[in-house]
Design a protein that fits this description.
It catalyses: D-fructose 6-phosphate + L-glutamine = D-glucosamine 6-phosphate + L-glutamate. By secondary structure, the protein is an alpha/beta fold. Helix content is 46%, strand content 16%. The strands form 2 sheets. Strands 2-1-3-4-5 form a 5-stranded parallel beta sheet, with helices on both faces. Helix 11 links the parallel strand 6 and strand 7. The longest helix is centred in the middle third of the chain and has 22 residues. It starts with 7 loop residues before the first helix and ends in a 17-residue tail after the last helix. 52% of the residues are buried. The chain binds fructose -6-phosphate. Fructose -6-phosphate binds next to helix 4 and helix 11.
């Protein structure tokens, strides 16, 4: 069942255009972002809420962290994101007008389930689950549900489940934006068009695999790596560092690039590869000056820049060009290269890609 692929992880990385197309299918077919995507009574619930609280673990938490940028800027609602295992053990402030969104591909993660129960015990009645497994525990315990359609994910390191979570969260954002008067008909058409082009842009990013595999050879010998991003791409830097840690056992950390000089710059020398996610957005110039700080300390830069970023390679600066800038959906497209970088570095190191040591696919214990 692996077909032409060597591992499930590689197969699942390549399934992303299809998984995304399936996840956005209902919106594309309807030609609009309709609240009914989230259940029959979703419109009433989603129009009445005044904020969002997202609870999740691991990769799903990074999907939520990306969604915070979307929800606050596009839907104009306050959004906070918290690691489920932290939330469940603190005396949290609960505003019952806020919607609790849990994100869990398995739907069985104990910490996320317990965080949901805890939120309810604090008075939250409005809850929404984004999940990849039909009728699993967390969606069953939630008022509203949106299933991603990634299909079964076998590799322990999450890939297609993550990008489809992002697609679902983007759809939620636009639905909320419409209901709260922040997204007008013209903008909706625009978002629809961007979503329609998403599977194709992801396919273009997949075509970069040979170039990324060549980079990965050099990563395989490193002991550490830094990942940098800003804004919407900061959570993708986090996801890239997590994938690298999980399957290559290389120590990797991610920072919002603006934080460099507040500490991590001290780590940078010739031995530290620095991966930068640098598409052409409003923060690009800032990212470029952060990159100069790295170069000045001898750090080797590996830059993912889109066609519009206007970057060229130079001494110590390697550049791979991702597809044309895709606007707010850019974090989804830029997830693909960091997944492939981790995958190929793991291949070069000969680790067990689909079953990394010490990890389980579904974490049903604390
Ligand atoms: C990392 C990974 C984990 C999961 C986390 C939550 O690649 O897969 O970090 O994201 O264990 O799992 P779910 O989404 O099933 O709640």
């Amino acid at each position: 069942e692996l077909g032409p692929y060597r591992h499930f992880m590689q197969k699942e990385i390549h399934e992303q255009p299809r998984a995304l197309a399936d996840t956005i299918d209902a919106v594309i077919n309807a030609g609009s972002f309709d609240a009914s995507l989230f259940g029959a009574n979703a419109e009433a619930v989603l129009s009445g809420i005044t904020g969002i609280k997202i609870l999740a673990c691991g990769t799903s938490y990074y999907a939520g962290s990306t969604a915070k940028y979307w929800i606050e800027s596009i839907a104009g609602l306050p959004c906070d994101v918290e690691i489920a295992s932290e939330y469940r053990y603190r005396q949290a402030f609960a505003d019952p007008r806020h919607l609790v969104v849990t994100i869990s591909q398995s739907g069985e993660t104990l910490d996320t389930m317990e965080a949901l129960k805890y939120a309810k015990s604090l008075g939250h009645t409005h809850t929404l689950s984004i999940c990849n497994v039909q009728e699993s525990a967390i969606p069953r315990a939630s008022e509203l549900v949106c299933y991603t359609r990634a299909g079964a994910e076998i590799g322990v390191a999450s890939t297609k489940a993550f990008t489809t979570q992002l697609a679902a969260l983007f759809q939620l954002t636009v639905v909320l934006g419409k209901l709260h008067g922040k997204v007008n008909a013209e903008q909706e058409v625009d978002y629809l068009e961007q979503l329609r082009q998403l599977p194709g842009s992801v396919q273009h990013a997949l075509n970069l695999e040979p170039q990324i595999a060549a980079w990965a050879e050099r990563f395989a010998t490193k002991a550490n790596a830094l990942f940098l991003g800003r804004g919407l791409h900061y959570p993708i830097a986090l996801e890239g560092a997590l994938k690298l840690k999980e399957i290559t056992y290389i120590h990797a950390e991610a920072y919002p690039a603006g934080e460099l000089k507040h500490g991590p710059l001290a780590l940078v020398d010739e031995a530290m590869p620095v991966v930068v996610i640098a598409p052409n957005d409003s923060l690009l110039e800032k990212v470029k000056s952060n990159m100069q700080e790295v170069r000045a300390r001898g750090g080797e830069l590996f830059v993912f820049a889109d066609q519009d970023s206007n970057f060229s390679a130079s001494e110590g600066v390697h550049v791979i060009r991702t597809p044309r800038n895709v606007g707010v959906l850019s974090p989804i497209v830029h997830t693909i290269p960091v997944q492939m970088l981790a995958y190929h570095a793991a291949l070069a190191r000969g680790t067990d890609v689909d079953k990394p040591r010490n990890l389980a696919k579904s974490v049903t214990v604390e």
